[in-house]
Write a structure and sequence with these properties.
With 354 residues, the chain is an all-beta fold. The chain has 1 helix and 15 strands.
Length: 354
């Protein structure tokens, strides 16, 4: 029996609460996504076996410095500094691979000092921004296949300091924004099994008192694979936006304003394309490809009023000779005014006879 299915998610719609979109396709008519070639360097293996070695890279950017507390009556706290970005690129031909990259966290804001009797108290220092995390894995799998895990996290934004509280109290400051996260991989496997798990998580925004919480960092995960016609691949890509920073107070109040930070947006893209483009013999259509693409928008920060929800986009495209399954899941963030848009799109191409 031959299955011939093709499914495309309808255009996204916006809702006042978070929206969720899912698209799953199994074994459809053969298609080729030639635009993938532009994304691929010349990684195609010539068949030479590589030794079964291992790559492990764990790196975190330096944290920002915390601000100083006001040293004299009525003195303001100073702002925390930003965390350092962590950017790494790894090329590997090994069977076991672990890449874990994190941006540095932002420094905490310094506290304002109380003022003398009847004098203004010091203002709070702002939280520093979290550093971005950015990693790329170029994997040329050896004969027999490979296992790889790629994890990227944006640094957390620093919390704002506290103002001095003797009357009149000082002003609050903003929390630091969370760092963005970007995970990218380009893999080639000619034979055997590939297990790839990839995740990007935006950094959380810093909290504050009567000001604006920091925004959560955006997250992007992109995985591209070129594969032989008789391989087994399991791939999971997940992008999760960072959580917004919390805030007290009410933004409509002229005395004690404050609002939570926005959750970060999320985008996950997966593309698996089989080489060669010529059809293999009928008895060799035995590839087993299972992949998922998940995008989860970040949760906004707690507050009397929260911003609109962040958007989420998940896309998966697979072309293979054999049993092929692809799932795309997107969940938009909820918000006070409008929930975030969720868009999921799965396109699977194959021909499989049970």
């Amino acid at each position: 029996m031959t299955l011939n299915q093709h499914c495309r998610q309808p255009a996204p719609t916006q809702h006042p609460v978070s929206s969720t979109a899912t698209s799953t396709v199994t074994s459809g008519s053969l298609r080729t996504a030639r635009r993938l070639l532009a994304l691929m360097p010349l990684l195609w293996a010539t068949g030479a076996a590589a030794p079964a070695l291992a790559v492990e890279l764990i790196y975190q950017g330096a944290p920002g410095s915390s601000g100083l507390t006001g040293a004299t009556p009525g003195a303001s706290g100073t702002a925390g500094t930003s965390g350092s970005a962590a950017v790494r690129s790894v090329s590997s031909g090994d069977a076991s691979n672990l890449v874990d990259i994190s941006g540095g966290s932002g420094g905490q804001g310094g506290h304002g000092a109380d003022g003398n009797l009847g004098e203004q108290s010091g203002n709070a220092g702002a939280g520093g921004a979290g550093g971005a995390g950015d990693a790329t894995l170029n994997l040329n799998a050896p004969a027999g296949g490979a296992t790889a895990r790629l994890s990227v996290t944006g640094g957390a934004g620093g919390n704002a300091g506290l103002p001095g509280f003797s009357e009149p109290i000082g002003q609050s400051a903003t929390g630091g924004n969370g760092g963005n996260a970007s995970a990218n991989s380009v893999s080639v496997i000619n034979s055997g099994t590939l297990n790839l798990t990839q995740a990007a998580t935006g950094g959380a925004g810093g909290s504050t008192l009567f000001s604006l919480g920091g925004n959560g960092g955006n997250a992007s995960s992109m995985a591209n694979v070129l594969l032989g016609s008789s391989v087994s691949v399991t791939l999971d890509s997940t992008a999760t936006g960072g959580e917004g920073g919390a805030a007290a107070g009410d933004p409509n109040s002229g005395v004690l304003p404050g609002a939570g930070g926005a959750g970060g947006a999320a985008s996950s893209t997966v593309m698996l394309i089989t080489l060669p483009f010529t059809t293999p013999a009928a008895d060799s259509w035995n590839a087993v490809l299972t992949a998922s693409s998940t995008a989860l928008a970040g949760v906004p920060g707690i507050g009397v009023v929260t911003p609109e929800g962040g958007n989420a986009d998940a896309t998966i495209t697979i072309s293979g000779y054999g049993r092929v399954t692809g799932t795309a899941l997107a969940r938009g963030g909820y918000g006070a005014g409008a929930g975030g848009v969720a868009n999921a799109n799965a396109q699977v191409s194959s021909s499989y006879s049970a």
